[in-house]
Amino acid sequence: MLTIHHLNNSRSQRLLWLLEELDVEYKLEKYQRDAKTGLAPVDLKAVHPLGRSPVLTTENVSLAESGAIVEYVVRHYGNGAFAVPEEESRYQQYLFWLHFAEGSLMPPRVAMLVFSKAKQKVPALLRPLAKKILDGIMDAYYKPNLIQSLKFTESHLQNHAWFAGTEPTGADVQMLFPLETLVAMGQADDYPAIKAWVKKIHDRPAYQRALEKGGEYDYA
Amino acid sequence: MLTIHHLNNSRSQRLLWLLEELDVEYKLEKYQRDAKTGLAPVDLKAVHPLGRSPVLTTENVSLAESGAIVEYVVRHYGNGAFAVPEEESRYQQYLFWLHFAEGSLMPPRVAMLVFSKAKQKVPALLRPLAKKILDGIMDAYYKPNLIQSLKFTESHLQNHAWFAGTEPTGADVQMLFPLETLVAMGQADDYPAIKAWVKKIHDRPAYQRALEKGGEYDYA
What is the CATH class of A91-204? Predict the structure, then answer.
């Protein structure tokens, strides 16, 4: 039996969607972020030494890192669904998006989130200066990077229904978290195809079931 | 014929190591970072719309994202070397490290680099305050994350010669860049197994050839 160790408002929500789509039986262990720091609770360390979510456990193993978990679930439990056969030319596209989601898209999204929280925490008097410094870093490095990634993603979705083929695959699962946070935070106005793609997933019955089971989730 | 579009002092250096190990013929197109901003030059955009390095081109395709490129090269040009067969249990370990390198390890490493450059750019008078703000963000978020990742990596290398088996694989290629920057910047004193692993790779004739061909590289 699979167990998903699931943190509220986190990267693990997309895995519930995948498991519901594949109609796989699984147990859900829920963890709650620290109300003050927003960090994952220490008891996740008992499940995997990295202490992060998601973690997927079976009788034998404890697996971390979203991209690797998606590949594992699709290979072992998909019966061909949500997978792309290695011999098809779109397999490389599948791998690209699977890596791109966390390798290129998430780091600047996380930086934006971390910076905006930091600006709120700074004493009011120093806030203009903190804003100047952090916006400077954002504009010089993270933002151009993020905009480039989003434009590239948007242009792919303008010409394709899904990330790697005519049906959703593991690549769509992996891309969901960064893109649904973008839409939920009202930052997707320049990206109508991304918006439509997120809505299309949110409308699926499997996604609705995942949402109900996962509990608190601010991005849907 | 493969062409690697290679940026000095960048993530693409590890791909040269892989190609030299596999004894694959390839062309090298070199790009130079902007001396002032450190950013990639705009002509990389002609090769791939993301405008980043590495990019690998063949007669038919233009591939980006290191992890996806490593998987492509190993599958198409490895003849079994640097690969892990899907049916072996260590395949999941292979996938984990392949995703972990850019998904978990690089984001806090990049943040450290970006923050330390930003501190130097701030006018001298404001520097103590900038330091306080940026160190605060680092300590609250990126650093605990990075230390956890490095401890986990160190403990794996204390018990294994390579990341996914008894010989180097694509996982080692992907893990090389974050770990060799760590060692080169003198930040690996607490991680002797990581240091030894990097040295072991740097001593390989294929790595030496890659270094000679790649040109300017500050991390070896």
Answer: mainly alpha
